[in-house]
Amino acid sequence: MFSSRSLSSPSTQTLLINQVIAAIIRNRPFNTNVKPSTPQPIWTVQTVTQILRSIPKFLFQSPRSIGIQNGFRHRTPLKQRNLEEEFHKARKGVLILGPFAHKDPEKVQLGVEKAIEFYHWVETHCGFTHNELTCKEMSLVLAKGGCKMKVLFEFLKKMSRKGLVTTSSITCLIKCLGEEGLVNEALATFYRMKQFHCKPDVYAYNTLILALCRVGNFKKAKFLLEQMELPGFRCPPDVFTYTIFISSYCRYGMETGCRKAIRRRIWEANHLFRLMLFKGFVPDVVTYNSLINGCCKTNRIERASELLDDMVKRGIAPNRITYNSFIRYYSVTNEADKAIEMLRRMQGMNDGVVACNSSYTPIIHALCEVGRVVEARDFLVELVEQGSIPREYTYKLVRDALESAGKIDLLDAEFCTRLEDGIKGRIRQVMKIKPLLQHESVS
Questions:
Q1: How many CB atoms lie within 10 A of CB 330?
Q2: Cα(227)–Cα(230) distance, integer angstroms
Q3: Where are the PPR repeats (predicted)?
Q4: Distance from the CA of 296 to the CA of which of 80, 151, 162, 432 falls in 20 to 30 A?
């Protein structure tokens, strides 16, 4: 299976990675029958780590997630998963919703089995010595594959006897379990850290609190916070701990769609913010942005303005996210002049904050809605002159508004052609990426 070259050059290592991944995807055994005269391939930590990271990419992804943006972002509230329920649904052919939706259970099971086989094969047949990094990647594969926690815990126990399990690797595992919706499993991993000869730190607490808040389990998250606030506790909370609660209260309250729940969550966020100041913590720009965004989305513009003034007094420079919250609010309430004022205020800052599509688009839509089509055209031209390509809907909205007002001549033909070519080029680029990723996942 492997090339006879033993050089540790990047091209050789890439070829070695591709050969192993191909064997995993096609479910072929790893060939160890290397001739005595042929040098053995050189296995490095980077090579083994890259192979383990590639398994979820090729075998755990659902076809619907191919071509999506990188990063962890859920547009709907993250649901807590139940592995036993998913197993029974998969056997009955019932659709599974949530992070595991539309995935092929057979491919996922194959990926987990081949990852375990490769992990032991490279150690027993190739003389490779695993370290903390490869152990962490292997545990992440087991977590993303949704295997039984008994298998994961036995693996961690075995590796902890070799001293390969650390607090940082367990923290990464808790984060992965939380992103997969396996919050109860993340909580169990946290309380088993002592069995793995690890002591939790503030980062482990914050990671677990974030996972609990994502699924709306504020009761257990608040219990952990109260535990951290005890006098003399070895892991006292920091600014990020309170920021997690404030942002989660604002986001989760609005996602419920219930007015009473929204009022309650926004009140709790403001109360926790004041308690944070009382205890001597200095909030950062992320804390302010989370609370300002929540206040703007719940029509508490006076409170949001107070927070903006407080930021400036404390010497914390507002960024684009801060001003975009105000711009969106004023645009929705048809106060286009105030939205433009916020845009100019942002552009007048000396910190290099540059407005983008998310800043101009709400203003352009608001101006078109109130009939100020000439100003909307001017802002569209200003956006393009800064090097950004507006959305197709925004461009058509301005064009149709000018045509209805009989002022279509204000849009230059050359400008329209350049803009339409840019929009089409962006569409072609996206359409090229999707077939490429689909071919990689199938091959």
A1: 23
A2: 6
A3: 166-200, 201-235, 284-318, 356-390
A4: 80
